[in-house]
Amino acid sequence: MNAPTSNGPTFDSLDGLDETAVTGLRHIVLACADTKLLLGYHYGEWTFGPPELEAAVANCSLSQTELGHVRLLHAVLKRHYDDDPDALIDDRAGRDFANVAFLDGDLPDWPAYVAANYIVDLAITRVLHSMRGSAFKPLRMSLDKMIDEERYHAHHGTGWFRTVAQRGDRERALLAERCQEALESVVTWFGPPDEPGDAAIVKAGIKARANGDIRAAMLEDVSAMAGSLGVELTAGVPKTWAGWNPATRRAKGDGPADDILYHLRGASNAIFKLA
Amino acid sequence: MTDAPTKPCPFCGSHATRKTADFSTSLMVALHYCTRCHSSFEAIKWGDTDAKLDVPSFLEE
Question: How close A60 comes to chain B (CA, Å)?
């Protein structure tokens, strides 16, 4: 278990947290769960079609862990916010999802998959890592497990990033294009530097670092690593955040595509749902 | 990706191989490719240079 994010009070429940922190915590947990749900879907899709058969099997494992993490995060929302996990997946409109927008549509090629694995997955891991040792104790145990597993996701994404980047000019250019798109959607997902909900949970010791700081560290790491392989990635923080919604972490767009939600929910097999 | 010595291809014996992924169908194996016979193959990681994960510093232990 990591050291606490602060030396202040700890919380076994939402009691004692101010309203802004309560809302801010739900927003970030749901946003991470939504992104993991979509990552689980896309990794699952890439069980077929990667350049190597063994990568297909690896994606099967990656998908399983992401969907397992969704269950862990939804359990927190169920216990402390009275959310219904099935409804969080099945009953919300796409525009209400708070996933990183890069995952809204299909990942059309292997570099897009690598961008999801290396950029998007790692962004969520950075946020969860900042809540390790959280003052909100119900998060702690599941976060340790998640981050241990995510180390292998990061290893996989970083390895494939290096492999594709060194493959040739054409492959490197497509990788740069996909990663740039992923990076820009991640930058937006983190939100404005002074977002009140995020500031409140940092102040309460639930999160060690504000999203703006996490974003800055990520941009620095990604651009340094990518740059060393000849992949130029830059993404500035938007000057204005008009219309950005902390509940959906986007200012525009309709969320995941209808056909993706249809398959993700098993809508064509709804009559066979258990219980 | 690490610069570990190449693994010999189990199909043709060539050392003209390269590692293409640090783990494959399970965590204990890495994925390699033989440029001579164009086969993909897995090799068990035995704790040498493969033991260190290629991750950002915040995930290092």
Answer: 9
Give tens-digit pLDDT for A54-96.
889 899 999 999 999 999 999 999 999 999 999 999 999 999 9
Residue boundaries of the structural domains of chain A: 19-272
- Residue A77 is encoded by which pair of tokens? 């929302």
Residues in B closer than 8 angstroms to A225, CB to CB, are 56
Q: Which two tokens stand for residue A119?
A: 């950029």
Residue in A147, A154, A159 nearest the CB of B1: A159
Task: Answer yes or no: CATH 1.20.1260.10 is held by domain A19-272.
Answer: yes
Predicted ipTM of the assembly? 0.73
Find all residues with CB under 8 Å of A80, minimum gap 6, and list them.
A13, A14, A138
- Indicate if the pLDDT at residue A158 is higher than 50: yes
Would you kindly state where each structural domain of chain B is located, as residue ranges? 7-46
Helix (H) or strand (E) holding B33: strand B29-34
List phi, psi (to 5°) of A187.
-55, -45
- Hey, how many other C-beta atoms are within 10 angstroms of the C-beta on A202? 20
